[in-house]
Design goal:
about 250 residues, alpha/beta, 7-stranded parallel β-sheet, 4-stranded antiparallel β-sheet, 10 helices, binds 6-O-phosphono-beta-D-fructofuranose
């Protein structure tokens, strides 16, 4: 039975590789909404995928969230490589353990790598924001984000993320009114991939998701099925690490 299940997943991966504009895909069994173990499997698969591709001097930029935290937990040293981890964005109002910076520190620790952080407060006015962008320390990290070889990130349900970040009632209304479906990199988007709102945090923007970077998207769970479809319309992804629930959803849509 186990063998049949594995070959079934192989079949899903082959079909997805053929039908989506991606370089690679890994499907783990189950539905992340149903069992916590599935998120761990996603983390392990993503960590392995990155380990297979990383080099000594690779720069990896990462986002936050519980899925990325699971990726960090499963990372292990690769030869005697010392990759550099940088957070994709400064604080986004996320809980400490879900912030990109905390995850960067954890990843660097796990692989004997190093990390750089973006020390920026969450919400600052326009004037302070532009001044901070001129700070050499901030500029330095931004240039590392620009140069990154890998982007590894999660995606989330728009409303869930807005609530996790304690968005104001007004912001929530705005997202609802515009039918926001998903969120990634601080951008909220609708089912057609149209940006509804972008959080005012320093760091990576959509324009940084360029072809020279390998973008690894890690997500699972029935509740994120609509989000992944919208995300594909919003921006690029090269490698997918998803669960079976999401894989079947994507194949049904094609
Ligand atoms: O807040 C960082 C972030 O990567 C978001 O961009 C994304 O929507 C969310 O975390 C995913 O969180 P989780 O993995 O906990 O669902």
């Amino acid at each position: 039975a186990i063998l049949r299940e594995i070959s079934d997943l192989d079949g899903l991966e082959t079909q997805l590789r053929q039908s989506l504009p991606i370089q690679d895909v890994k499907v783990v069994p189950g539905d992340a909404d149903q069992s916590k173990e599935v998120k761990q499997l996603l983390g392990k698969a993503a960590a392995q995928m990155l380990a297979n591709q990383i080099k000594n001097d690779s720069i990896v930029t990462v986002t936050g969230g519980s899925t990325m935290a699971a990726v960090a937990d499963h990372m292990r040293p690769v030869q005697n490589f010392h990759p550099l981890f940088v957070p994709a964005r400064g604080g986004l109002g996320d809980m400490y353990e879900y912030q990109a910076s905390s995850i960067c520190v954890q990843m660097a620790k796990q692989v004997n790598g190093s990390y750089r952080l973006l020390y920026v407060p969450d919400t600052v006015g326009e004037e302070i924001y532009s001044k901070m962008m001129e700070e050499p320390a901030v500029k330095d990290v931004l240039s590392l984000i620009e140069k990154a070889d890998f982007v590894i990130h999660g995606i989330g349900d728009a409303m869930k993320m807005a609530k996790r970040r304690k968005a104001s009632q007004e912001q929530i209304e705005h997202l609802k009114k515009n039918s926001a479906v998903g969120e990634a990199f601080g951008y909220y988007f609708d089912q057609d991939g149209k940006t509804i709102h972008q959080l005012n945090s320093i760091g990576m923007t959509k324009e940084h998701l360029t072809e020279d970077k390998t973008i690894i998207t890690v997500a699972g769970g029935t509740s994120k099925c609509q989000v992944i479809s919208a995300f594909f319309k919003w921006g690029p992804s090269d490698v997918l690490i998803i669960d079976e629930a999401m894989a079947r959803h994507l194949l049904n849509q094609i």
